[in-house]
Amino acid sequence: MTNRPWGTRRTALTRTAFIAAPLCMLAYGVIRLSDPDHGPGLTWTSGHIALIAGALLFAAIFLGLLRLSKPTTSAARLSIQAATLLGLVGVVAVTAQGVMTSLSDSAPTTGPGWTGSSRAFRATRA
User: Fold this and answer.
1) In the 3-class helix/strand/coil scheme, how is the chain assigned residue by residue?
2) Which residue, 94, 105, 93, is CA-closest to 51?
3) Handedness of CA 21, 17, 46, 113 (dihedral sign)
4) How much is the average pLDDT of 72-81?
5) Are 95 and 55 in contact (CB under 8 A)?
6) Most CB contacts within 10 A, which of 35, 38, 57, 108?
7) Poorest-confidence range of 12-16, 62-66, 93-97, 104-108?
8) What pTM does this model have?
9) Is 48 within 8 Å of 32 (Cβ atoms)?
């Protein structure tokens, strides 16, 4: 491995993220659409792992775009920072949703701890 300065590594991560983040989101969509059960299981979990990875890579993109921006006025600087903040809030929300949804497979489907997982929902609709 070459000994590159930290700034170059961040740039390489951002460049990689520009390709990998949309591919992870595409993988999530393909996995979810190919799942005949549309519920907890291996396909469900792997799809949500792709979703979480894509969201986290988008965080790298947002931060990389913030570093690349060269605002000349305080209003431009404020709007760029606000857009980055909103993007990062979205990343946190999507990541939290992905984690909670991927963990729903281990949730009980009856009893006092029941959370209404899709497996139980499908059973009541059948």
Assistant:
1) CCCCCHHHHHHHHHHHHHHHHHHHHHHHHHHHHHCCCCCCCHHHHHHHHHHHHHHHHHHHHHHHHHHHCCCCCHHHHHHHHHHHHHHHHHHHHHHHHHHHHHHHHHCCCCCCCCCCCHHHHHHHHC
2) 94
3) negative
4) 93
5) yes
6) 57
7) 104-108
8) 0.72
9) no
